[in-house]
């Protein structure tokens, strides 16, 4: 199986660290987050990874080289200009000829990647999005008003649940026909394009551990919890 890892972001939310250090090499415990991701994918049966690199690409390429030290083949594509989160796929058309996983390179999660791929295949979708439930707490009273501004309800400090994208996707190779070469395209726009063309897009709801370490709060939490969570990250 093949996986594409987006590893080209500038990590602006983690400045000043990411000014001279690519975000995917930020350490969680004693390892860069991207090294943990590579080892996870290997444990789930992936045998080839394509990394889409950009910001400080040389450091990432030097660290991982061809992937032989991890027992997995690693290749690289590099953007000449920013292409968004989905646009880099157009650079890989010659490589992506089977079902493939695509993910951000800064995620710490116990998600079962191989189960996600199997779910995608069973449902016959062109794309599957891994989803996680997040709760937003509102620290104020929230009134409900009608069209005449009459207050017809009131909720004190409500909690609102959302399903959010985990930054992990599975695609069929025919998704590439929806991405033009050198086109800037983000994932939300690609997904909306697929839906508007009648394609089936599925959601895979996962209620386990997931952190986006590009967020400062999640990065600090990941470093606090890595020793406890580490054994659960890999498929046995």
Number of helical stretches of at least 4 residues:
5
- Using only CA atoms, what is the Rg? 19 Å
Helical proportion? 10-25%
Distance between the termini: 17 Å
Question: Biggest sheet: strands, sense, closure?
Answer: 7 strands, mixed
As residue ranges, the low-confidence spans are: 13-18
**Proportion of residues in β-strands:** 25-35%
Averaged pLDDT, please? 90
Strand order of the largest sheet: 5-4-1-6-11-8-12
Number of strands: 13
Q: Write down the overall geometry.
A: globular
**Element string (H = helix, E = strand):** EEEHEHEEEHEEEEHEEH
Structural class: alpha/beta
Short description:
By secondary structure, the chain is α/β, with parallel strands linked by helices. The chain contains 5 helices and 13 strands.
How would you describe the overall organization of this protein?
By secondary structure, the chain is an alpha/beta fold. The protein contains 5 helices and 13 strands. The strands form 4 sheets. It has a 7-stranded mixed β-sheet. Strands 2-3 form a two-stranded antiparallel ribbon. The longest helix has 14 residues, at 216-229. The model is unreliable at 13-18 (pLDDT under 50).
């Amino acid at each position: 199986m093949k996986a594409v890892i987006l590893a080209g972001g500038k990590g602006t939310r983690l400045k000043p660290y990411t000014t001279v250090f690519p975000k995917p090499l930020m350490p969680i415990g004693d390892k860069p987050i991207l090294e943990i991701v590579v080892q996870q994918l290997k444990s789930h049966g992936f045998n080839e990874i394509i990394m889409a690199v950009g910001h400080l690409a040389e450091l990432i390429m030097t660290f991982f080289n061809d992937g032989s030290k991890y027992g997995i083949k690693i290749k690289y594509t590099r953007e000449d200009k920013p292409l968004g989160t989905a646009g880099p796929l157009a650079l890989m058309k010659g490589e992506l000829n089977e079902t493939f996983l695509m993910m951000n390179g800064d995620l710490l999660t116990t998600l079962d990647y191989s189960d996600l791929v199997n779910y995608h295949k069973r449902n016959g979708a062109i794309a599957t999005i891994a989803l996680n439930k997040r709760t937003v707490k509102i620290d104020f009273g929230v009134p409900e008003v009608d069209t005449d501004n009459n207050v017809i309800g009131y909720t004190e400090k409500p909690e609102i649940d959302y399903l959010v994208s985990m930054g992990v996707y599975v695609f069929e190779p025919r998704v590439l026909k929806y991405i033009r070469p050198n086109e800037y395209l983000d994932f939300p726009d690609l997904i909306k394009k697929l839906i508007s063309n009648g394609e089936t897009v599925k959601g895979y709801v996962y209620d386990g551990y997931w952190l986006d370490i590009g967020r400062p709060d999640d990065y600090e939490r990941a470093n606090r919890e890595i020793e406890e969570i580490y054994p659960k990250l890999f498929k046995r």
